[in-house]
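As promised in the previous annual report, we have extended the structural survey to additional targets. Below is the entry for Homoserine O-acetyltransferase.
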Amino acid sequence: MPIKIPRALPAYNALREERVFVMTEDRAEHQDIRPLKVGIVNLMPTTVDTEIQLLRLLGNSPLQVDITFLRMGSHESKNAPPGHLDKFYISAKEVISLGMHFDGLIITGAPVETLPFEEVDYWDELAAVIDYSVKSAWSTMHICWGAQAALYRHYGIPKQPLAKKLFGVFPHKINERHSPLFRGFDDEFLAPQSRHTSCDRDALAARPELTIQSESVETGVFLATARDLREIYVTGHLEYDSLTLDREYRRDLGQGKPIAIPRNYYPGDDASQAPVVRWRAHAHLFFSNWLNYVYQETPFNLDDIK
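The corresponding structure token record, generated without further manual editing, is:
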């Protein structure tokens, strides 16, 4: 089944070209089913690219998914196309004031990880969304900095600076083999990482509410959950497409930043070669598993979420 998005959204044509199932709002209104309602708090500077990446994965399931994009009204994006956020996004404050509920909510990463949380200009608004999600979304997936922010907000778990940027594609092991999120996964899977900070594993493991479902020696905790998967914390970027790390690498080089070549990404660590994608299948499976879990568990009447 398709995801429902506006026809004018730039991602619509890109996904149609990839033969991802998408449906326009007018067609969806003639279907007598309740789609899953998924909100996306898109904090990434690559606004449109991130939309495409997440929608590509959310559109690969037999479920119809109704997408709502949320923005931080207290932050002015310098990277979105002119008028894009006004046209396709709703402010988080409005979502809260309207009492909107979601089957699933995604909070992305953001390029602010070296700042203390309280110094991020939209922290108060994001913290309100994180608080609101507890009783207004059945399951919330927090990604990268979004995971660190929510772990700090919910549990007071600090982030820790890394000696150098964790950058590349890394293997991860699964601790919870019977987790619905890892149904169909291999014993080891690869996932991109791109961050300057990390979760405090000892602090996380000390909280009985949290379960570390996946981790690795090189990257630390990859996935932690709470409240029977109603809170999901992902430190990496399964949603990344084939060239995302390449673009980040060349951007940092161009800006004169100290950046090592992304690990396990280019053949022979040769940046002149096209990267090899080895995480795509698990990315699709992970998001499909999440949607299936949400579909099975969420109340039919969203107002019943507590």
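The radius of gyration is 18 Å. The chain has one domain: 3-160+198-241+280-304. These points will be discussed at the next consortium meeting with the crystallography subgroup.
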